[in-house]
Amino acid sequence: MTSFLEINGLNLSVHSDGRVLPILSDVSLTLERSEAVAIVGETGSGKTLTARAVMGVLPKNAVIRSGTITFNGVNVLTKEGAAAAREHIAMIFQNPMSSINPLFRVEDQMNDVLNWSLHGRKETKEEKTSRIRSALEGAQCYGDGKILRMFPFQLSGGMRQRVMIAMALLRKPSLLIADEPTTALDVTTQKEILSLLTKLTKEEKMSLILITHNLGIARESSMKTYVMYAGRVVEAGPTAQIFRKPLHPYTKGLIDSIPSLDKSRSMEGIDGEIAQQDRAAVGCCFASRCSYAIDKCLTRQPELKELAPGQKVACYVAEQGGLRVV
Ligand SMILES: Nc1ncnc2c1ncn2[C@@H]1O[C@H](COP(=O)(O)OP(=O)(O)OP(=O)(O)O)[C@@H](O)[C@H]1O
Ligand code: SF4
Ligand SMILES: [Mg+2]
Known about the structure:
Layout: E1 5-16, E2 19-31, E3 36-40, H1 47-55, E4 62-71, E5 74-75, H2 79-86, E6 89-92, H3 96-99, H4 106-118, H5 125-138, H6 157-170, E7 175-179, H7 187-203, E8 207-212, H8 215-221, E9 224-229, E10 232-238, H9 239-244, H10 249-256, H11 276-279, E11 305-308, E12 311-313, H12 316-319
Parallel strand pairs: 3-8, 3-9, 6-7, 7-8
Antiparallel strand pairs: 1-2, 1-4, 4-5, 9-10, 10-12, 11-12
Helix pairs in contact: 4-6, 5-6
The chain binds adenosine-5'-triphosphate, iron/sulfur cluster and magnesium ion.
């Protein structure tokens, strides 16, 4: 049986300065109806481009070399399939300030989204206003229409994010992709936005892809987690299980870098950063930063294998039964 969303073996490159650079390699992901999955990984790991491929809104210089993406059984890699999928998918882009037009009032922008989603179907002004108000309420934006008359710069970061969510809700999506929806928000607002997204997945039966570099957020708000590194999925599985027992050194490093109030646990970071050559490495993409690496790691990229129930990992050392610093 096919899943609601299925990405299989996605390979994507970008053309840059006369060169073709591999960015995503063999990315696979599945998502069911009403399920919330998180994609985590540090900057440049390929989270946003994976999401954009699902939405069919890739940058002009990006090319999908191979792989398939189906949404509700429809191939989204065709023009018609992408258009059909976009009817049911909404995305909250990474930077809310760049996704809403600073020159127009909230009401005008919400009307634009609504008119687009009505596809020429006529509705009275009252009907439209009522839909806009109910979307704002759904996103917990209250305030007797005052927000509608505001410009984006007059809104707080949290309110801007709620307006973005309300715009997404106007379209009644069956899949919402939220790309770093809480970056730059204070902790309390962050929590409110996340519990709003979780509530919507339950009440509106909406699936959610939550993109974040913050593992704490993934732990609280998703059922399944995909850990990406240098354009590859290196670990994937049930979120609680991954946090209890991460099997990939990179996931372990990310979890160890989460700040904790527990004084017995010291915070350890991962040295270095993703380099372009890691994406095209002959061996494991994480080898240049991995303290568990063995000779074999430099010869071939490990395949993603199920090493615990539902938990897939791409690591030779994990395959051999455990992480031991060498
Ligand atoms: N249009 C583009 N042209 C060239 N390179 C690009 C383009 N878009 C993305 N990239 C590169 O592809 C890689 C993956 O980008 P992507 O935006 O998916 O990363 P990300 O995981 O979302 O990172 P972040 O956490 O910083 O948002 C990065 O190295 C980025 O610089
Ligand atoms: S395959 Fe080797 S280099 Fe890659 S993560 Fe596992 S131990 Fe580290
Ligand atoms: Mg991104």
